[in-house]
Structures are given as C-alpha cells and as structure tokens.
Amino acid sequence: MRSRLAVLVLVVGSSAFGHIKLTAPESFQVTDTFGSPNKAEPCGGPGTASNVITTVEAGSQLTVTWGEPILHPGHFRIGIAASDADFHTPAAVVTGGACISAPVETTPTYPTLADGLFASHTSTPAGGWSQTITVPMMSCDHCVLQLMQFMSAHGAPCFYYQCAALKIVLPDAGTPNTDAGTPNTDAGTPSTDAGTLEPIGDLTPAAGCGCTSGPLSLLLLLPLVLLRRRN
Asked: Full-prediction pTM beyond 0.70?
C-alpha cells in the first residue's frame, strides 16, 4: 500500500513539473528549474515578468536553445509572431486520454518557422536542444518567439509552451553617399576683353578743311612745313 502511494505521489509530482525550459533567447518571464510555468497556451501561463527583451535583426540567424528537464518522446515547433494571439495549437490525436500524434507543418507558414524538430527522440543531449532559424523580415518592438513541445506517450493536454520577447529591427545598409562633391563647372570666365584700343586721333575731317587732325595728319604735314621754310 505504501509503495503504491509513493508511486502515485511521484507521478502526480512529476506531472506538475514543466517539461521544457527556454534558455536562449531568454524567456519573457521568470521560470524555475523545470521551466514552469509552461502548461497553458500560448506562452505557458501567468507568471512573473523577467522584463527581458532580446533585440535581433530581421533576416539574421538566431539560435534557439532549450532544455528538457523531463524527457518525453514527441517533437518541437518554433515560431515568431507580431503578437502571441497569432499562435494556434494544432489539434492532437488523443486515444483513451493519451496523446498519440499531432500535425506537423512540413512547409511552415506564418507564424511557424520550424516544425517537427527532433521527432520521436528517446534521449536529450547533455547541453539541451538547439535550432538555428532565420528571423522574419519584419519590424516590431514587441514580437514573440514561441517554443512549443508536443509530447507523445503522455496524458492530455499534449503541449507545453515557452516564449521570449523580441525586438526585431530592419537591417541598416546605410545611406549611400550620392554626393561626390559639386563639380566645378567654372573653368574661369574667358576674357573677351583683349584691351581697349585707344584711338589714334580724331579721323573726322575738320570743318572747312580737307585734312584730318591728329598725330597721323601732323606727321604728314611736317615735311611740307619744313619744305616751305627752306624756300
């Protein structure tokens, strides 16, 4: 009788423990050694906020890591959404109260990024599980990453959840510098002034005279004056 009671206590106690614990990115709320709270969709249930927000770049690679304190065969799913309300738990196949299987998105669509991870595993790696995903091309200050576990050979409910808060920023390629400098189109103003030609003199015929005045006319008259003086 005592042994049966001990077994019953062990089963009830272990079922109260969480089955996954998100380690990176860090959960948006405080979790214990077993990852609790993680039983209620979409993010595990009420808890104490950790106030941790992980900033990631859209299009970058993000490695998600988690532990499995209590081993259960099944698989995992990872998604990123603008709001936790965008996550939906698939309908599991349950027979006699036991979880048998759950649909897997072979071609994931929003908000799912990877599904059917480590299906039907029978052991947990010493360092826990790890999966690298590509951050969607979106921008938000309060996006949500969800890690979901489906457990087979387990009594319903069949799923456990953990979430992290993400700030996704678009990649900054920098503003191209299109200013190569203002080209100097002024090669100098060509001088059209080759100097002002000074008039040699007034070439206008003097009134009442058939001659012209000015230096040139004087030079022409000078020999005549000298000739008259000689005569």
From this structure: no
Give the DSSP H/E element, type plus range, for residue 37. none
Q: Residues 131-150: pLDDT tens digits?
A: 999 999 999 999 999 999 99
Residues 6+ apart with CB under 8 A from 14: 70
CA distance 21 to 48: 15
Asked whether 94 and 87 are in contact (CB, 8 A), the reply is: no
Q: Quick: pLDDT tens for 2-44.
A: 444 333 333 333 444 458 999 999 999 999 999 999 999 999 9
Among 146, 136, 121, residue whose Cα is nearest residue 22: 146
- Work out whether strand 53-57 and strand 74-81 pair parallel, antiparallel, or are unpaired: unpaired
Task: Give 29's DSSP letter.
Answer: B
Please spell the DSSP secondary structure of 82-132, one letter per residue: SSGGG--PPPPEEETTEEEE----SS--TTEEEEEETTT--S--TT-EEEE
C-beta separation of 18 from 39 below 8 A: yes
